[in-house]
Amino acid sequence: MKLDQPFIRLPFRFDVDRLKSELDQLEGQHWMAHPNRIRGNAAIALVSRNGENNDDFIGHMKVTPHLQRCDYMQQVMASFGEVLARSRLMRLAAKSEVSEHVDFNYHWYSRVRIHIPITTNPDVLFYCGDEKINMRAGECWIFDSWRRHKVVNNSSENRVHLVIDTSGSSRFWRMLRRMQGLADEIVSVSS
After folding, report:
1. Helix axes of 16-26 and 71-78: crossing angle, nearest 10 degrees
2. Residue 8 and residue 31: Cα distance in Å, rounded?
3. pLDDT surpasses 50 at 110
4. What pLDDT, on a 0 to 100 scale, did the predictor assign at position 107?
5. Is 31 left (phi over 0), alpha (psi -120 to 50) or beta?
6. What is the per-residue pLDDT for 189?
7. Which of 33-42, 55-64, 161-170 is predicted with the least confidence, judged by mean pLDDT?
8. Residue 146 and residue 136: Cα distance in Å, rounded?
9. Reduced 3-state DSSP string for the chain
10. How far apart are CA 28 and CA 178, in angstroms?
């Protein structure tokens, strides 16, 4: 989805300790390699075609058994009040990067990707257009995936984001327009 600016911080903050605790439950055998075999990039499917371990964009989207084990992640995802498309935990290994690219698949014509960092540090930088930021743990961001973008993890730790795809309702788009002009207004989702 084309946006007016490269990054928009959404008015939510999530409980990082609870997210990390649920992430720890999923460590191990569940990580899938990136479909394009990008070195150091892996994912755990949370909402996917038929609720299975896949990276498909089309088909009947269902909650996976991985997400069913994670009550707080379900609450976080439901807090947006949106219909969700493919959603995943995305890991970028230490000293790895996702090279510069544009999301040109038809999926992105009408969808945005919400990023919620779970494990990160200041040495993880997200570049979009002419800007770069460090998304801090527990924050909530979207970015313009039609601009050239990349992610660089210069740290010695893995970076993991909860990544949620949605088309967004009119309420969602009104919130985005409001956030484009406001400083941080944070809504805490902790119970």
Report:
1. 120
2. 28
3. yes
4. 54
5. beta
6. 54
7. 33-42
8. 23
9. CCCCCCEEECCEEECHHHHHHHHHHHCCCCCEECCCCCCCEEEEEEEEECCCCCCCCCCCEEECHHHHCCHHHHHHHHCCCCCEEEEEEEEECCCEEEEEECCCCHHHHCCEEEEEEEECCCCEEEEECCEEECCCCCCCEEECCCCCEEEEECCCCCEEEEEEEECCCHHHHHHHHHHHHCCCCCEEECC
10. 40
Side chain identity at residue 30, one-letter code: H
What does the chain come to in residues?
191
Q: 190: which 2 tokens?
A: 């902790």
- Domains assigned to the chain: 7-189 (2.60.120.330)
Q: Which tokens go with 49? A: 């075609």
